[in-house]
């Protein structure tokens, strides 16, 4: 075998491995690598289903990865290997990144892509000529696609035309809390549940995949579930549970549904008469309250405060309460929030800020509002997600 062909097959096999990972996660198996001087500088697999984004094709993911690796917008010294011929959108991305050579494995008449590749990359107005080669490991690439769609045809449909489908007794939606910082906080029951689940719903599949690998959770379909697709995905989750699937929902950190997506899916499953179970586990709100030193007989959790509209009225209302108020805030807006609170309550209201909970640089800043502001303002920077706790209106004195 000529050295050039051997090299092409080597890189296409890497793309095939990425495609297999995409298939196991529920995406159409397309993988791509970008090579520069015989080294892989960019990797990508379809993330369309996992990210809930129709533009996350393997080629685009790999090109973005290569640009980050090389620190270059244009990839004029690179070769792109992809298991399936690029579609028109991906061909456009290839042209914009000025990749001179494109090599793909299988062709698919449904995409009509081969024509679009040649028309776009050879357009003289783009001042860019591209070499396009096909047929590298064509049988393997084609077989991978064929097997994927054959298996999907054998699976029970999630959607049903039956107006009153039978409810499976085995289906369940598990809410699985994940560590808020220290991975050792993962519970044995949470790991067991994730291993037993048929599908895992993640706030961000890219964030969750390394954690699942860390706890030896077998590869299985991962569904993205975030604020932009929450309504539609909730309907899908209901149907999956209805037909008997065990669905585990996780967020990036902590308990799903608590200042994270999850409520709509839980409500939809309950309304459909399906089983919803929440596992106990890590929670920044509870952890911070326990260690704050503020009264815990009456706690009011309000999540993230409004950033602009209605912010003052919101703070005035919650700060008039007697219990300990708990809220989350970004480190970039933390001082602004505390100064707003000081304006409303005065400088002597008891306050605690907890940040980097369970991590190496965990910190609790305790004192009056003015003392906490001064302590944080003296730092060169504030990092980590923050929990802000304010003593109730009847609490007097310092901490």
Describe the structure concisely.
With 399 residues, the protein is of the alpha/beta class. Helix content is 39%, strand content 19%.
Notes on the structure:
The chain is α/β, with parallel strands linked by helices and 399 residues long. 39% of the residues lie in helices and 19% in strands. The protein has 14 helices and 15 strands. The strands form three sheets. A five-stranded mixed β-sheet has the order 2-1-3-4-5. A five-stranded parallel β-sheet has the order 8-7-9-6-10, sandwiched between helices. Helix 4 runs parallel beside helix 5 and helix 13 (334-345) packs antiparallel against helix 14 (369-377). It is globular, with a radius of gyration of 26 Å.
C-alpha Rg (nearest Å): 26 Å
How many helices in DSSP terms?
14
In total, how many beta strands? 15
- Tell me roughly what share of residues is in helical segments: 25-40%
The fraction of residues assigned to DSSP E strands is 15-25%
Question: Major β-sheet, in short?
Answer: 5 strands, mixed
**What's the helix-strand series?**
HEEHHEHEHEHEHEHEHEHEHEHEHEEHE
Assign the structural class, choosing from mainly alpha, mainly beta, alpha/beta, alpha+beta, or little secondary structure.
Answer: alpha/beta
Going across the biggest sheet, name each strand in turn. Answer: 2-1-3-4-5
Low-confidence stretches: 157-169, 395-399
Q: What is the terminal separation in angstroms?
A: 76 Å
On the 0 to 100 scale, the average pLDDT is: 86
Coarse morphology? globular
